[in-house]
Amino acid sequence: LSDDALWVAVPRLAKTERDDLARFLIHLGELARRDLHLEHAYSGLFHYLLTLGFSEWEARARSVASLAAGKNPSIFSLLRSGQLNLTALVMIAPHLNSENHEALLGKACRRSTRELQALVAEFAPRAARRDSIRVIWSGASSAPAVTNRAAGAQAGAAAGGDELFAPAGEARPA
Question: Average pLDDT over the chain, rounded to whole?
Answer without folding.
Answer: 83
